[in-house]
Design goal:
10 helices; six-stranded mixed sheet; 6 strands
């Protein structure tokens, strides 16, 4: 396996490997700053940003996202705090800021910068060439306010249309649907990720209220738990199957019953 990966790395043209090395160095120099700016919890390792960088023309990686944009200083310094928080530390304050700035969108708001960067994220479908192109595409949004605002608006629509209500519960099957639920006014959101065959539930509040929940002991093929808090988080959990997800949702609905809006989207 290692031999095959080395072969793939060699397949990347030399000039691209040089660019990739420069990008990696810049991210390494800034990841601690970004983590501190975003007040990331201890269980989120700043080096996780490096895992988003693809290493070959064939092996995919998560690729570019708003966190990478911060670490490369592609987002203006005075607009980075919101993006840094939303990368790994969702809070009520950050979500309220997004909702507020969406009421009167402009290209230079922190929310628009975050959404514009998110619009280029593909999560796990990116090789070296595509990763470098993502960065170039974002640089084009930096210098073009009109295009940046349009990208932000389109991403907002994608996020907020990515979920539907299932018995009053925000639920989707696309990346960004949980964030879309937060933006739309819901204190929590949930999704089914077909890539992993798992259900996820998240909130921007301090806790989902599942500290005493009895999780399944089922493991995946690599021996990892298929249920429970993700990296120990009280805000984000995974469920091994639909039955477990329904049990979790009943608890979460009761916790947030006073905060669930009657309208499907407070911003529309």
């Amino acid at each position: 396996m290692e031999e095959q990966e080395n072969l793939n790395i060699e397949q990347v043209p030399e000039e691209l490997k040089v660019k990739l090395a420069e990008i990696k160095t810049t991210i390494e120099e800034n990841i601690q700053r970004v983590a501190k700016l975003g007040k990331w919890p201890e269980y989120i390792k700043p080096d996780s940003l490096l895992e988003r960088i693809p290493q070959s023309s064939e092996k995919d990686a998560p690729g570019f996202d708003a966190g990478i944009a911060c670490a490369l200083n592609l987002i203006p310094e005075d607009k980075q705090e919101l993006t840094a928080e939303l990368h790994a530390n969702y809070t009520r304050e950050a979500v309220l800021q997004v909702r507020q700035e969406l009421m009167n969108m402009n290209a230079d708001s922190a929310t628009s910068w975050w959404l514009a960067a998110c619009s280029l994220c593909k999560e796990g479908q990116v090789n070296v060439e595509q990763f470098l192109q993502q960065i170039e595409d974002f640089k084009n949004l930096i210098i073009n306010k009109i295009a940046r605002l349009e990208a932000a608006k389109k991403e907002y629509e994608t996020m907020t249309s990515g979920f539907k209500l299932v018995d009053g519960v925000p639920f989707g099957e696309k990346d960004g649907c949980i964030q879309g639920a937060y933006i739309a006014g819901y204190p929590f959101g949930s999704m089914y990720a077909s890539k992993y065959g798992l259900y996820f539930v998240g909130t921007y509040e301090d806790s989902l209220g599942l500290e005493d929940f009895k999780w399944s002991e089922e493991k995946d093929a690599r021996g990892r738990p298929k249920s429970g808090p993700v990296f120990g988080s009280k805000q984000f959990v995974k469920c091994s199957n639909e039955e477990e997800w329904k049990l979790v949702i009943e608890i979460v609905k009761k916790k947030f019953k006073e905060e669930i809006p009657n309208d499907t989207n407070i911003l529309k």
